[in-house]
Design brief:
The complex is a heterodimer of chains A (725) and B (129).
Chain A (H helix, E strand, L loop, with lengths): L4 H16 L6 H11 L9 H17 L1 H18 L2 H17 L3 H17 L3 H17 L3 H18 L2 H17 L3 H17 L3 H17 L3 H17 L3 H17 L3 H18 L2 H17 L3 H18 L2 H17 L3 H21 L4 H24 L3 H107 L3 H36 L7 E3 L1 H19 L6 E5 L7 E3 L1 H24 L8 E9 L2 E8 L29 H11 L3 E7 L3 E9 L18
Parallel strand pairs in A: 2-4
Antiparallel strand pairs in A: 1-3, 4-5, 5-7, 6-7
Helix pairs in contact in A: 1-7, 1-9, 2-3, 3-4, 3-5, 4-5, 5-6, 6-7, 7-8, 7-9, 8-9, 9-10, 9-11, 10-11, 11-12, 11-13, 12-13, 13-14, 13-15, 14-15, 15-16, 15-17, 16-17, 17-18, 18-19, 18-20, 19-20, 20-21, 20-22, 21-23, 22-23, 23-24
Chain B lengths: L1 E5 L5 H8 L1 H5 L4 E5 L2 H11 L3 E7 L7 H9 L8 E6 L4 H9 L4 E4 L4 H16 L1
Parallel strand pairs in B: 1-2, 1-3, 3-4, 4-5
Helix pairs in contact in B: 3-4
The chains are: A alpha+beta (725), B alpha/beta (129).
């Protein structure tokens, strides 16, 4: 018996509705439900109505794909209008089914991918596996088994994660189908057996029936029709027991096929009639076509050509009405054979042309399977030759010869077109490969540019904060310089006085003055060092590249940057003022950090705090005292540095964005939007955490947590001593 | 003459004590020091009557010199001590604000101690007369 892979495709399609709507009521019943909704005003905004349309369209996609396409176009627009994403997603999926039934695989894939995108973006994980499964079926129908398997194996773990036994079963079945198509019947059997085991474990009758039915198909191919029959008997009995008409029909049709293989034509005829009566009653159009085709073949084997032709023609008309390309192809092929046997070569040619046209439709869509297409062309040519020979035996030799010539010409054109399209495909692929390479290079260049821009931006952020600091630094240097000048000046006076006292022989006073001068020299040294530290700090702040960690007195660093920020802002804006409160935990001596980096973080947080309190003050809140608090505390294993303000806090809707690069609430030109982002990175690079505690309307507190790292008090280094002022 | 110096820089104390060592020795001037506005107010609570002059920095963490000036000039009983403001930012805004708040004089940093000494001596003379 010839292999009929499309049959299994259709079984997969029968299986697909079971994924969502088990025991689907007849299409007419669903349509009545839809009509009932349409009596209500604003029904298009009712999700219950939209769900009902999807349920109906699901059936329609199978029974009448063209109608389904029209219904679904409207349905998608309705779902979009009210933002009903799930409905829209289901509609795209069903649209995919409709296109697939029309063998329009390209559009089917687009629709399934639309559904997949909606499912992925809107977090409908339960739907993703099902959609991937349908995508797999589409590829499989095109003969692209590699892509089909890729999608099935993506769907399988997802379905397993969701414990979606319907989809697991469907995927296992479809994987098995591919083995079946490839003639690997044993492997197919193993997978159908897995489906059977799973379905038995889950008490999923539909799955059990399908598994038995498909195992029967495999056993038939393995040359054991008796075993196949046993499987089918089980399937049929179960389908009857649970009153699943779809699977009753499918089992009956399969049994008919087995009987036909066993040359039990009468039994086959009876089984096909069973299948036809169920499908007619239930409105299963595709299965009815298939059963009519099978029955016609049985009549052909019985030698009853006229009945075979009439049966096949009935199937053909039905297939034409629903646009079922696969069925049309098969039926035309059969009719070509039947007419030839009947001595009607012109009709045979007519149907052969039909067969070829539908084969082309399928094969053009499966352009990536050129080899398969070429094989088919070869078969066509061979078959054509046979027809030609048969026709020559007839009386109307001339006509038949002409027919033959025409057919050969058609084949030649198809051959030529196929070769051309293969060539074009190759050229197009080569071009695409070149394009991809060019795009890759472009991307690499863009990444390099981005990295350069990022470094520049980081540097410009440093410079921007340095500019803010300059005035503060000037003030901070001015104070120690004043002391250096004053103490030097006064010391000169004191020395002069000392000389006078010595001359007077007043050594006690002279010694006292000497002690003062000594103390002054120490102060000069101290303030000199202080100015030096500020300059060093400024240089470190502007330095590019990452510094290395060293023990840092975090209290002194926080205090220093608080002053720098304050004086910096004060210098820029005379009206600026804020109360600053500090609470430093004196037990913290040093921590391991990169001082210039940590200084940058502190400066940024403090400047931001000053900015928000100033803004609040400007808004004219009565009795408002702009205040910021800088505190440190030990919270093992962390040291916490908190910068708190009593500004307006951070609006909830931007809270998640504040650490993002380029996000700023400051007016254009006043902030780079990099401060908090860089601060976050710096703290992270120190193995710490930067978080925010927000009280909308009352203020915010930024908390830097740094690991303690170096034990306190063990690493005091006079070189790193910070000025005590 | 009792003078209160308010500055957050600790070494201001040593500097004044040395710059005015003769006047201190002669008991011409009597300096007290506070290192914040808040500390100054605490001192004045106890010594307001005897304090003739307050020399205050403007830019200090916490209570600023201008806030201190406002608090002193707004306090009872009147007349309040004289207040001379010192700041590194010799600008019109601070000058005007200080004037409005009742500052009696204004000094720029770096402080010219010779000029300051003259001012204080004049004040001392005027007070004695």
């Amino acid at each position: 018996m010839p292999r009929t892979p499309w049959l299994l495709c259709c079984i997969a399609a029968v299986w697909a509705p079971l994924l969502v709507f088990s025991q689907m009521p007849a299409e007419r019943l669903l349509y009545q439900k839809v009509q009932a909704f349409e009596k209500h005003p604003h029904y298009t905004k009712d999700t219950a109505y939209l769900n009902a349309v999807n349920a109906w369209a699901f059936q329609l996609a199978d029974a009448n794909p063209d109608s389904a396409l029209r219904v679904l176009a409207r349905q998608i627009a309705f779902c979009k209008a009210i933002g009903y994403v799930k409905g829209e997603m289901d509609a795209h999926k069903i649209l995919g089914n409709a296109y697939q039934n029309k063998a329009n695989f390209a559009d089917a894939l687009i629709s399934y991918n639309d559904a997949l995108e909606l499912a992925t973006h809107n977090k409908f994980p339960t739907a993703v596996a099902g959609i991937l499964n349908n995508i797999g079926i589409t590829y499989s129908d095109q003969g692209n088994y590699q892509a089909a398997l890729t999608n099935y194996y993506k769907a399988l773990p997802l379905a397993e994660k969701q414990n979606d036994t319907f989809v697991i079963g469907a995927v296992l079945n479809n994987i098995a189908n591919i083995y079946y198509y490839q003639g690997k019947f044993k492997e197919a059997g193993v997978n159908y057996q897995r489906l059977l085991d799973l379905s038995v474990a889950k008490r999923d009758t539909a799955g059990i029936i399908l598994a038995y039915r498909n195992l029967g198909e495999v056993e038939l191919e393995l040359g054991t029709p008796e075993v196949a029959l046993q499987s089918l008997q089980k399937a049929k009995a179960l389908a009857l027991a649970v009153n699943n008409t779809e699977l009753q029909e499918a089992s009956a049709r399969m049994m008919a096929k087995i009987f036909a293989a066993m040359d039990s034509s009468e039994l086959a005829q009876r089984a096909y009639n069973d299948a036809i009566s169920i499908s007619t009653r239930q409105g299963y159009l595709v299965p009815r076509c298939q059963a009519l085709l099978g029955l016609a073949r049985v009549y052909q084997n019985m030698g009853n050509v006229p009945t075979a032709i009439s049966t096949a023609l009935e199937g053909l008309r039905l297939a034409q009405s629903i646009g079922q390309v696969q069925v049309l192809k098969e039926t035309n092929e059969l009719l070509a054979d039947l007419y030839l046997a009947n001595g009607n070569a012109s009709m045979a040619l007519e149907h052969y042309k039909g067969f070829k046209r539908y084969s082309d439709t399928l094969n053009i869509l499966a352009s990536d399977k050129t080899a398969v297409a070429l094989q088919l062309q070869y078969n066509f040519a061979k078959k054509e030759h046979e027809y030609e020979k048969a026709s020559l035996k007839q009386l109307w030799l001339a006509l038949a010869a002409l027919v033959g010539l025409l057919a050969v010409a058609v084949v030649a054109v198809v051959f030529y077109r196929s070769r051309q399209s293969t060539k074009q495909l190759y050229v197009a692929l080569q071009e695409k490969a070149g394009l991809v390479e060019a795009q890759k290079q472009e991307l690499e260049e863009t990444i390099v540019k981005l990295n350069e821009t990022q470094s520049l931006l980081v540097q410009s952020e440093k410079m921007a904060s340095l500019a803010e600091l300059t005035a503060g630094i000037a003030h901070e240097i001015q104070n120690p310089l004043n002391f250096v000048n004053n103490f030097s000046d006064v010391s000169a006076e004191l020395l002069q006085e000392m000389v006078g006292e010595i001359e007077k022989g007043n050594l006690t006073d002279a010694t006292e003055i000497a002690a003062d001068v000594q103390s002054n020299l120490q102060k000069i040294l101290h303030h000199g060092k202080r100015a030096d530290a500020i300059v060093k700090g400024m240089l470190q702040h502007s330095r590019t590249g990452s510094g290395h960690k060293e023990p840092v007195n975090i209290n002194a660093l926080a205090d220093e940057y608080l002053r720098l920020a304050y004086h910096g802002l004060r210098a820029k804006d005379n009206s600026f003022n804020a109360t600053m409160k500090t609470d430093f935990d004196a037990s913290i001596v040093t921590i391991n950090a990169v001082p210039q980096d940590m200084g940058r973080v502190l400066l940024n947080l403090i400047t931001n705090a000053f900015y928000v309190v100033t803004e609040k003050k400007k808004s004219g809140v009565p009795d408002y005292i702009p205040t910021i608090w800088v505190s440190t505390k030990k919270s093992p294993p962390w040291i916490e540095i908190t910068v708190r303000d009593n500004g307006n806090g951070i609006p909830e809707h931007i809270l998640s964005k504040i650490f993002q690069p380029f996000f700023t609430t400051k007016p254009s030109g006043q902030g780079t939007g990099l401060g908090l982002s860089l601060s976050y990175d710096i703290v992270k690079a120190h193995g710490g955490e930067l978080s925010v505690q927000n009280q909308p309307g009352l203020g915010a507190a930024f908390v830097i947590k740094l690991p303690v790292g170096v034990p306190n008090g063990l690493d005091q280094n006079p070189e790193n001593e910070w000025p005590d002022d | 003459m009792k003078i209160l110096v308010v500055d957050d820089e600790m070494d201001v104390k040593a500097l004044f004590e040395q710059r005015f060592r003769r006047e201190i020795r002669n008991q011409e001037f009597d300096f007290a020091f506070a290192f914040s506005g808040e500390e100054a107010l605490v001192y004045l609570d106890a010594n307001k009557k005897s304090t003739v002059l307050i020399l205050s920095d403007i830019n200090m963490p916490g209570m600023s010199g201008l806030q201190l000036l406002e608090a002193i000039k707004g306090s009872e009983p009147k007349p309040t001590p004289m207040v001379m403001m010192i700041t590194a930012y010799a600008d019109d805004d601070n000058f005007n604000t200080a004037k409005q708040l009742g500052a009696d004089d204004f000094l720029h940093k770096p402080v010219d101690f010779v000029a300051l000494k003259e001012k204080l001596k004049e004040l001392s003379q005027w007070q004695k007369s």
